[in-house]
Amino acid sequence: MSLQTLINKIHLIQSTDDIPAFKACISDNYLWLESEFPRVDVDSLVLGRATFVDALLCHAWQLLELHKESKIALVAVGGYGRGQLQPYSDIDLLLLSPSALSQAQQDTIGQFITFLWDIGLDIGQSVRTIKETVSLARGDVTIATNLVEARLLTGNQDTFLALNKKLHGRGYWTSKDFFIAKSKEQQIRHSKFKGTSYNLEPNVKESPGCLRDIQNIGWIAKKHFRVLKGTELVERGYFTEQEFQELLECRSNLWRIRFTLHLQAQRSENRLLFDYQNDVASRLGYGDDGKASVERMMKSFFRTVRRISELNEMLLQRFGHDVLQIKVKNKSIINPSFEIADGLLATRHDNVFTQPEDILQCLLLIADTPQVEGLHSSVLRQLRYARRKFHSQYYCEKAQCRSLFIELMQHPDFFGLAWDIMHKHGILQSYLPQWDHIVGMMQFDLFHAYTVDEHTHRLVKHVYQYSQGNPQFPRCSRIVRNLDKPELLYIAAIFHDIGKGRNGDHSKLGAQDVAEFCVMHNINDKDAELIAWLVESHLLMSVIAQRRDIYDPSVINEFASNVRTHNHLNHLYALTLADIRATNDNLWNDWKATLLRELYLLTQKALDNGSECKVALQDRIDDHQAKARKLLMGRGVNESQIEQFWKRLRDDYFVRFKPEQIAWHAGVILAAHPMTDDFLLVDANEHTAKSGTELLVYGKDKINLFAQVASVLDSRNCSIHDAQIMKTNDGYVFDSFIILEQNGDRINSTSRLASLKDAVTSQLSKPGIEHQNRRKMSRQMKQLDVPTKVRFYSNQPDVTLVELEALDAPGLLAKVGNLLVEMEFSLRMAKIATIGERAEDLFIVSNSDNKALTQNQEVELKKRLAATLD
Which residues belong to any copy of the ACT domain (predicted)? Predict the structure, then answer.
């Protein structure tokens, strides 16, 4: 069935009462779009969809005899005004009249709109007079933008022309004001996506470098230059013909993705969500091999996005000079090839990049010249051409380029603007083959928010911020600013994830890559060893901090043995903090900061004591007791009460808790007399732990206490980040939980905290009744497969460390807690780490004989955990 056949079918319908016939035509149009998409270029289909809707609307207008309302015009606005429609995009309409409508006219218009809804068209409509339209558009740039591409569908042409005259008259948006508003709007929109399209679920319409950026060029050009076609911009010298064709090609690439997304979702969906990526990749011909197909599609998408971003930047800069009539106020010549024009690096002739070395020299020039705030369009245009001209070999193959690259790594200001340019414009990709491999590489989880290259770019920026002195991270800032050779840390940062996507341990592969890089770039053996160790060990500190018991002397001693020196520890600490912060903006919190700081300080002391941690831990016990005693006595608790209470607790209690926590625990428990067999204390404190809110549960032991508390908190959208489960020497349970909101924020509401305490108290007061957790799994979680993995560590005779990796599904901790009770195991401590969709939890348990688990018990626990959680 052809498009013309579909339009002919519309014209055969004789009445708007024949709703089924109109619906059948719309259904046929969707079938036509589906069937034609694999073999027809997407531009034709996007225009064809608009043509079909034009015909349908005009026919309905005639059938309802609106053509007899001689003054009313039916106008397409927004994207539909351009004559372009994706399958499920909104159909934006303006019903325009020169003056207020009569009641009869309003009724007829109402019939028309209701009819469009009844047949299933997704319309966005406004019914306005010319005066109302102009007035609203004056105060809202979005409305003004929709009118830039207004197109008369049917009705009174004079009314439409009268509107156009007003839109180009005095007192309306000037070109200057419109340009400023649209530029600001683009900046705000980009900031919502953290300034990058290199997100794992990009929005193909709104993200930087996507369709909205192309449309912005068109809106500004049409408003100021009154051009209707892009070819006119070529004639005026804003585009070369090659750049114009490139922009059209990029638009078609994005149209194809958006078109497929709409067909797949059966609605207007512009986010390339995990849910759709496999199917969209398959439909677009990237194959049916799952993640590999998605990887190919997304790499192509990110290449397109970069090209659009560069063209958008070049054109808006050129437009800005003409629209705003900006004349260069300050110009200074740097060398025969470059000058600075009002803060932008500009070229002085048409061939500044004759060889790859010139590009690296340009970056060095930017790093050397603090007055440079960005690139002029002349530099960007030549850079784009040079990048293509030199594509036959990687720049690192040339000795002079290698020397310049190391010079850049050693430059104290390179990792400011120059590093951003190197990443944004594909220069590092052209220099280093391993980096080329990770550009646009997806990470199929909820832990990472960005592609591998964008994550690494952000990590390097965090390290650079430390070098400038970041008051939020004084320890890291002090470390980085005192490094003798900070370039070693930067090189390790660049290579830390470079081994991803190569079917092996990316840390080991990256270490091999950076070792070869060091040989190629004449880095001495000692420095090369540190860089390679950092790359291979870049996950070590976060794994130990978040998944092991850092107050166990053997854990600290083992970590200190791996680290070996203070210099290694300092480098690793700075790299680890930057790595976590660059992974996902929502993942960094005070809890992670506390864990890493504690591990860093304990390891420092262990290294000072020759890797013997026991001395450091005894010092910690003595210090915590002394400070807590002072706090308690200041609150009226006498020495006798303090000593009596502390005799009931083991030494590891004083290691794990800070003085403020110890004083609070003792105060609320001592104040809660008398203690009976059914005694239960549930309390919370927002101030004892920097990392979150502390929830204290104290009383006689109860069956499934941990599981019940975990279930209640989970059902109320709280996450447990740490659980210390202890028993006093006289048989009381002492459980301390550090809790946060599900999104990682602190619990700041007093009423929220009171509600949580009441809920836990209420549940624990119901012996034998299991809590029902009805929290639903999120959309994204349902798309992900995380197999359950269980590992055991038994380095002490009385406990076993159980490391669990599983999907962070609702009720996970409660299920684990219930299972441990069923198997008659005692839970001593739990350390909870949620990394995206993945729970990576540590449980310290002992069997019914208060011993470490036997091998048979480990096998049985592993089997039952897999059965319960998978």
Answer: 694-771, 801-870
Does the pLDDT value for residue 825 go beyond 80? Answer: yes
Q: What angle, rounded to 10 degrees, do the helices at 525-536 and 566-583 form?
A: 40
727-753 pLDDT, tens digit each: 888 878 888 988 888 777 788 888 999
To 5 degrees, how large is the angle CA 452–CA 454–CA 460?
105
Convert the pLDDT of each residue in 346-392 to its tens digit: 999 999 999 999 999 999 999 999 999 999 999 999 999 999 999 89
Q: How far apart are CA 347 and CA 381, in angstroms?
A: 10
Task: Give me the residue spans of the domains in the chain.
Answer: 3-173, 181-324, 442-604, 614-767+782-869
CATH of 181-324, one of 2.60.40.10, 3.20.20.80, 3.90.1150.10, 1.20.120.330: 1.20.120.330
What share of residues in the chain are helix, strand, coil (percent, to 5)? 55, 10, 30
- Is the Cβ–Cβ distance between 681 and 736 less than 8 Å? no
pTM, entire model? 0.81
Contact 72, 149 (CB under 8 A): no
Q: 42-63 and 19-36 are packed helices; what angle lies between their axes, rounded to 10 degrees?
A: 170
Residue 624 Rama label (left phi>0; alpha psi -120 to 50; beta): alpha
Residues 456/462, Cβ–Cβ less than 8 Å: no
Q: Report d(CA 738, CA 744) in Å as an integer.
A: 12
Name the CATH code of domain 3-173 (choices 3.30.460.10, 1.20.120.1200, 3.40.50.2020, 3.40.50.1580).
3.30.460.10
Query: Percentage of residues in the chain with pLDDT exceeding 90?
Result: 64
